[in-house]
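Troubleshooting: if your tokenizer reports a length mismatch, compare your output against this known-good record of 500 residues.
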Amino acid sequence: MQYVTRQPKWFRLLQDEIKDKTLKIGLVNFNDDSFFDYVGLHGAENVETFDVKFPRVSDKIKWKDLFPEWIDEDEVSAKPTCPEIPMPVFEKYEELDVVIAKVPCKKAGFGFRDVFRLQVNLVVANLLVRSGGSWNNNNKRPPYAVFIGDCGPMWEIFRCEDMLLHEENLWVYKPELKRLKQKILIPVGSCQLARPFPEQGQLAMDEIREAYVTVLHSSEAYVCGAIALAQSIIQTNSTRDLVLLADDSISPKSLLGLRSAGWKIKKIKRIRSPHAEKNAYNEWNYSKLRIWQLSEYDKVIFIDSDFVVFRNIDQFFSYPDLSAAGNDGYIFNSGVMIIEPSKCKFQNLMNKRFEVGSYNGGDQGFLNEMFVWWHRWPSKLNALKIFGNSSHRDLRDDSYTVHYLGLKPWMCYEDYDCNWDKVESQIFASDSAHERWWKVYKKMAVELRQYCALTPEMNARIIKWRGRAKKAKFSNGHWRIEVKDPRRHEDFPIYLLFDN
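Known-good structure output:
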């Protein structure tokens, strides 16, 4: 049989990058396949290959074992552990120039949760870091990675910025080893709490490019929340920038108030959620994807504008991308998360938004399909104001934040949490959490409080549901409270507690 002697483009690229030497190539997951037949390198010269051996991860280990819904974060009963992901004996493969991996693939695309695929990606990452560990001192070039298969590499591990070539089902990377090393030092899943990168905490203040960011779009309903969020972060003596992304629905007056509260404003064009119903509450919340465009920052912590922060959380900027608190099953809650802005990541997200689904039609469902390998933050960094049927309605004293689900505090009276007035919203009711938001409000400058005024419509809604709660004689008794909130409108006397 006669073979074509011209080598593939990717191989010629590597030969050009790594000149005048025999290429030492580590082969990952090629099993009994002939490597040269598979990649079309018949007749290649100056190539030495090494079959990287490692035990395949047990089929008994499922994705939910790596990403459990709950772990004992406080280590009351036991220290959380992760299942073992077997690795090679790395000492056998310390001088590799290239690692080539055949990526297992049950289905192409994002949202592919497969433990063996993760193992192959981690094997490649470890080989590269260990092979390139001394390249700086020896003036060697760092090793390269080649991935073959319809699924490609996991972009949570191999950054799109490091990609040199992509042709159909083949990818070539020249990874930045310092960043890649961070990836192999963190837990293999959310089965343990993420760990910070200590070297990031040693930067001088003028070297730090980090910011808190929130997004306002489609209406001004959350302007007050965003002002309170900024003020709460400032009240914790944070040293990071505050950046707010706003579309054209936010008026000049509101933008003035937001700037006065501490936000740097960046105007954006909103992005529609392709899987949301028309006019649904989450129709435009893919606008959150704009945070990946903030390339002037190395890292940003996104926080939804229905949060307030009670303790300084600047330390969490030293955690890996993407870190977040857990939600249900193996998914994370996108209400607060740390990401590394990236133009190519943003473009990938935009390109995939139509073909990749979302379980809830919004950004959280989409992001959980795009970032299946994420890292667990403590739940007290995203304390959800939701209690089910529990009679205990106090948040932990050591909570860093509160995520105000249900009716927002600024949409209620200061005197009590109006989530008590509706049966369907009582799971979100908490007097203590409500009071904590208003403590932030009372520390705000008077000129900022005007942005939290009740509209006549909001006031009428509260009176309507207070009247219904009184008629139903709800046992919580909040409808009996004498309201003194000066924000209420005298046009709607508080004694008119009837359902009209």
